[in-house]
Design goal:
Layout (H helix, E strand, L loop, with lengths): L1 E6 L13 E6 L2 E5 L5 H5 L10 E3 L5 H4 L2 H9 L10 E5 L3 H9 L8 H4 E5 L3 E5 L2 E7 L7 E7 L2 E5 L7 H6 L5 E5 L16 H11 L4 E4 L7 H9 L6 E3 L5 E3 L1
Helix pairs in contact: 7-8
Length: 250
């Protein structure tokens, strides 16, 4: 598998990065994990506008899904006059309604479903193209899911947004790469069931026995180097900060 960071800023885009969006590729199949603010523009650096094969939305906060409204425009009003066939979109219950409401003026109430084939995510195991994926609900104020993506004996776990969660520990169990949010700063913010800090991300990786940790979803007002140091203090494996346009082979 190949993982490319399309955007990794938390809460709102930074001067350097779009919000959460990650491209996973294998066997010519392209799966996008989340499409937050600014992600659609950046995505076009890495693949064609119509080259995605499926999209997974971890939850329905704007910094993880709002560029789906722009992507609707690209697929519905395709420049050559031919509307795109529906692409599979996996998201929490109410995803179609959320995106339709956010767009505010789709031609009809069902226009989104003309270009997006919506599938409701629940805790389960299923196939997306060549990938076997496992989803579990994690700790966040809205319905939110972490995901484990497996292919050819390798595994990638993406936390989405979450506080400390036993479900996330299981998703990350011996993962080859653990892409984990670290939005809070240890000793500064302490809000249960919202976000992890760098130390908590490191502790999760350590408990799970993850082989590699990438910290992501760090907001522009948070010092990423502090979170990196906090994670390294409790996790012995390799750990680094996600960076836009960086790719990883798994």
């Amino acid at each position: 598998m190949k993982l490319t960071v399309v955007g990794c800023s938390g809460s709102f885009p930074s001067a350097e990065s779009a919000c959460s969006s990650y491209l996973v590729e294998a066997d010519g199949f392209r799966l996008l994990l989340d499409m937050g603010n600014g992600a659609l523009g950046e995505l076009q650096r890495h693949c064609g506008l119509y080259d995605l094969d499926a999209i997974f939305l971890s939850h329905l906060h704007a910094d993880h899904c709002i560029d789906m409204c722009a992507y609707f425009v690209a697929r519905y009003y395709r420049h050559d006059g031919g509307r795109c066939d529906p692409i599979p979109v996996y998201g929490p219950e109410g995803t179609e309604h959320r995106l339709t409401t956010a767009y505010a003026d789709t031609p009809t109430a069902s226009s989104m479903s003309e270009v997006f084939d919506f599938h409701t995510v629940k805790p389960s195991t299923f196939e997306i193209g060549p990938f076997t994926v496992h989803t579990e609900r994690v700790a966040h104020p809205v319905e939110a899911y972490g995901i484990r993506v497996e292919h050819a004996g390798k595994s990638l776990t993406y936390s989405g947004d979450t506080g400390i969660s036993p479900a996330l520990d299981e998703l990350a169990r011996e993962a080859d790469l653990f892409l984990c949010e670290a939005a809070f700063t240890h000793g500064k913010e302490s809000i249960p069931d919202l976000h992890l800090n760098g130390r908590e991300a490191g502790e999760t990786a350590s408990r799970a026995g993850a082989r590699r940790l990438i910290l992501t979803h760090i907001p522009p007002w948070t010092d990423p180097q502090t979170n990196l140091a906090d994670a390294r203090a409790v996790y012995d494996g390799p750990v680094e900060l996600a960076a836009p346009r960086k790719s990883y082979e798994i």
